[in-house]
User: What shape does this take?
Amino acid sequence: MIGEDFPAVLAAAQQGDEAAFAALWHDGQPALLRYLHVLAPDTAEDVAAETWTHVVRGLVRFRGTEQNWRAWLFTTARRRVIDQTRQLMRRPATSLEALPDLTLADLQGLRSPDAADLALENLATRAAMGVIASLPPMQAEVIMLRVVAGLDTEAVAQLLGRSPGAIRIAAHRGLHRLASLLAEAGVTR
Amino acid sequence: MTDRGVSDSDMPTFPWQTRPEARALDALLSGNCPPEDAPADLRPVADVLVALQAPPDRREVAGWGQALTVYREIAGGPGMPGRPRSRRPRLIARPLGARFAAAAGATVIAVLGGGVAAAYTGSLPGALQKVAHEVIAAPGARESSAAPTPQSSGHPAGPSVTGPAEYGLCNAYQHAEEHGNAGQSVAFRNLVNAAGGAGKVAAYCASAPHPGATSPPGRRVGQTGSPTDASHGRKPTTPPGKPTAPPGKPTAPPGKPTTPPGKPTTPPGKPTTSPGNGGGNGNGPGKQS
Assistant: This one.
């Protein structure tokens, strides 16, 4: 998160300031990639790059807080993944309105059970993503959006087209499940 | 079941958990709970969540060169409607080259333009410092002192693509460290992570590739005075709107808009313009939308 400087950084990036854009990118990209790795490990890098291209094109017209910015970034990425999944699965086209109702369950085909192929050097992070990816899709995605994307419950609810209550339940269930998995695996502290 | 729209704190607990537990989970999800403070049975979970947020490693920022190419093409061309002609980075680069800390204010003025900048400078001097460090830091201001090397602008794709940013970050990090605020910025955390720990940053930076030059290692670590960076310094070699094509082929060619930039302000749920903390945001150098 960039924090209180976000308005200034955003404004500068909108003016064409590369350093400001560097700050936005370096702040957003790692989280974006991790989220995408859980959603669609095989195409995470490509989708992230496409996401930034889209975002840069719309950058000058963006107005909002840092939360809005992140929501936009992750929403854009999510749509890319969904589009891609559709293409791959040749599903009948759905209307745009239906988009938010799609969940990770729709992306199962692209999802590898373990995140073993992650291009990450950080082993702890890699392991953490692997265990999150083993959760039920909706729970995994909600946790990634809450924790990694840094979005609050409301924002995640809007992004996924669910109620805040449903998001909170999914997040809590996911954490419970995670606790069980870790306990089973003998991870203690 | 009327949870829709109810804020977290008002939400009922679920049958399968106690209220304190729900609170603990919410705290974990919000990042308000370091693992040590978590209930014992949730500590392993807290550890996993912390690991998820670990600073990025090099590979995770390896796409920077490509992203910058896209940004240059779009920001430098007609793609950014309403954007003033002048290239801001140069304005920034100069004052920074002179003196980092002192340039912080000038930088923002350069970026935002006089009147608006005054508001900013008046209201968040501390923040400015941070912006300058974090933001400007990455791409530094090299051009004032050295002739642009053709290399950097044309090679966003190499392994050193993180180089320019890293290089600037190294300088900024040092500077921030002197002011005791190096730990706060994401960018710096990235750096620390890449280095393998706060104690190793100096060594790491000593070997960080010099943007523009192939590698004069160790040279820049000491010179806080002139943060260097490829993205800015190169401006002269890269005519706006016409970024040199990276040698390797980018996964997402700049020219290929996967989707028309549809109303960015409105993600599906449309958190459009919430007031948020953006005190100064509203009067930014308005691009009339």
Notes: Chain B is about 45% helix and 0% strand. The radius of gyration of chain B is 22 Å.
